[in-house]
Amino acid sequence: xxxxxxxxxxxRQSLKRxxxxxxxxxxxxxxxxxxxxxxxxxxxxEAEKAMSTAxxxxxxxxxxxxxxxxxxxxxxxxxxxAVKNLTK
Length: 88
What we know:
It contains three helices and no strands. By secondary structure, it is mainly alpha-helical. It has a single domain (5-85), classed as Methane Monooxygenase Hydroxylase, Chain G, domain 1 (Up-down Bundle), CATH 1.20.58.110. It starts with a helix and ends with a helix. The model has no long low-confidence stretch (mean pLDDT 95).
């Protein structure tokens, strides 16, 4: 456990930041899960809306440096390909 005042404050700050980071990550992961469920169901219109929401959340995670931009690009490309394959 930290003993100095500054270390105690730093610990408090890091715990708060961790909670915020976990919320952001959980939001985008939940959006991806919802999108994948719609793809399995075959609901194209709903999947497109979910893709838009998920893309937005992924971009926000990238902006906060929680997800690498290449991973974000890969996820969004795969979502777009999944929606495109629904028409076939």
